[in-house]
């Protein structure tokens, strides 16, 4: 094996590790919600903020991070992001109260925002051949999916054995390994001086997402008719409208709106949003369900999610072959239908529902999601020019993490007073969102994505 191939393989490990720890920290907290609440004397809304502070800053800063990587080089920005993520993880692990934990989670989200688009830019740079890139994207997504779906199990084991603080401290050795591998094996990307950081757009993005998360979370405590909640929703809408207006006028916008004229790009971004609302929101509510309704321990809750974890990697690795045979559009549409069916089968869930019936449907749900995500990601990358890979990846992940913020805020609020009732209402919403994802796949063009998927077979 040549030195170049060895370097590219280790670069793939480094970028997958970066994306993996980011996704791990999206879901690892869910099973530790109850111990964190008890130890830090926090409310349900406080626990929602621990989850949402991370995904909110992740979503808000990811576009600027992608632009920064395009401008000064993805490698150096990726290393800086790993360092920030690791330092913030130490802060989370040592946090003395719920306020400081939420604050460090927000900083951790900024580090995550840097890692994701820069990891994909480094990956695209290391694997210029479409076929090799499609396979690499599948492995990169597999690492992230394992981190995401394995988060509850990892969180349960660490919390049960060492305490909830170790779900954050475990990131430190992973971060050091990622930094070392990146410095040693990854090549720096070319720089694009026209990709400046869009400060007005960034401020408006933070305001829009922060206000939206606050309104959603506090709606569960105060009621969605409360003046504070309604005012937050109006202010979030105004900030979003201002963001769109600013982006239209700037010569180098944070979010180039012209990219959405490409049907595949627009469809993939929208699918990422709706799928994440459903999945991340349900993970949060299901964790509450297992611990408060079925009275599972933290470890048992993690183990309850474990079978679903086992199918994700297989699904990720099968996605490319399925898309090559049936077409990306059909694979995404079919995955959406399977998700809807598995969610519908979970609707009868209650206090006495056998665990075996629940876990089968969770496995089917994760199987469908594991097929959908790589296909969606490769479709979006194939529809964008390589010089804009950073902002393209950032756009997709902004959409996905915005969905995470909305899912945890809304679904968590629905379950605040009645977990079983909230779970069922969340499932109904999720079924509708899965069907919407299927419909959204219809305008996607096969050409760009399927060339990569077919070459990967």
Automatic annotation (TrEMBL):
Query: What membrane topology does the UniProt entry give?
Result: Multi-pass membrane protein
Know the name of this protein? MFS transporter
Q: Which organism is it from?
A: Paractinoplanes globisporus
Q: What is its main location?
A: membrane
What PANTHER family is this protein classified in?
A: MAJOR FACILITATOR SUPERFAMILY MULTIDRUG TRANSPORTER MFSC
CDD domains given for it?
MFS_MMR_MDR_like (cd17321)
Where does the chain cross the membrane? Answer: 47-65, 77-96, 102-124, 136-158, 164-187, 199-217, 229-246, 267-290, 296-319, 331-349, 355-381, 402-421, 427-444
Q: Which UniProt keyword terms apply here?
A: Membrane, Transmembrane, Transmembrane helix, Transport
Where along the sequence do coiled-coil regions lie? none
The Major facilitator superfamily (MFS) profile domain extends over 11-449
Under the heading PROSITE patterns, the entry gives: MFS
Q: Which SUPFAM superfamilies match?
A: MFS general substrate transporter (SSF103473)
Localization in the cell: Cell membrane
């Amino acid at each position: 094996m040549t030195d170049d191939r060895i370097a590219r393989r280790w670069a793939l490990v480094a970028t997958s590790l970066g994306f993996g720890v980011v996704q791990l920290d999206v879901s690892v907290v869910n099973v530790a919600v109850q111990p964190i609440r008890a130890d830090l004397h926090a409310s349900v809304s406080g626990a929602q903020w621990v989850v949402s502070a991370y995904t909110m800053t992740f979503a808000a800063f990811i576009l600027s991070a992608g632009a920064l990587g395009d401008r000064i080089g993805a490698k150096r920005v990726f290393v800086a992001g790993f360092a920030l993520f690791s330092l913030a993880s130490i802060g989370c692990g040592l946090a003395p109260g719920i306020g400081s934990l939420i604050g460090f989670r927000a900083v951790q989200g900024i580090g995550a925002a840097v890692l994701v688009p820069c990891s994909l830019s480094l990956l695209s740079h290391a694997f210029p051949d479409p076929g090799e890139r499609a396979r690499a994207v599948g492995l990169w997504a597999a690492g992230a999916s394992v981190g995401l779906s394995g988060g509850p199990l990892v969180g349960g084991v660490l919390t049960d054995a060492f305490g909830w603080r170790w779900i954050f401290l475990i990131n430190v050795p992973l971060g050091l390994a990622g930094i070392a591998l990146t410095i040693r094996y990854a090549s720096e990307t070319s720089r694009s001086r026209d990709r400046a950081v869009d400060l007005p757009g960034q401020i408006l993005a933070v305001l829009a997402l922060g206000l939206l998360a606050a309104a959603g979370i506090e709606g569960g405590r105060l009621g969605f008719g409360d003046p504070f909640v309604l005012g937050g929703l109006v202010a979030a809408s105004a900030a979003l409208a201002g963001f769109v207006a600013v982006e239209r006028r700037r010569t180098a916008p944070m979010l180039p709106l012209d990219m959405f004229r490409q049907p595949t790009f627009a469809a993939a971004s929208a699918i990422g949003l709706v799928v994440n609302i459903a999945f991340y929101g349900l993970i949060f509510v299901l964790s509450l369900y297992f611990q408060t309704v079925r009275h599972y321990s933290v470890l048992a809750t993690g183990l309850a999610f474990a079978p679903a974890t086992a199918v994700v990697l297989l699904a990720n690795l099968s996605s490319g072959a399925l898309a090559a045979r049936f077409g990306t559009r059909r694979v995404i549409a079919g995955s959406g239908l399977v998700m809807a069916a598995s969610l519908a089968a979970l609707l009868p869930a209650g206090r006495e529902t056998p665990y075996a019936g629940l876990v089968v449907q969770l496995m089917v749900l994760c199987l469908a999601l594991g097929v959908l995500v790589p296909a969606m990601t490769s479709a979006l990358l194939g529809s964008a020019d390589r010089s804009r890979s950073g902002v393209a990846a950032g756009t997709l992940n902004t959409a996905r993490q915005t969905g995470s913020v909305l899912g945890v805020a809304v679904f968590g609020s629905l379950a605040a007073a009645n977990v079983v009732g909230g779970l069922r209402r969340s499932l109904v919403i999720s079924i509708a969102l899965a069907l919407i994802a299927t419909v959204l796949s219809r305008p996607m063009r096969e050409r760009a994505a399927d060339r990569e998927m077919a070459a990967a077979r």
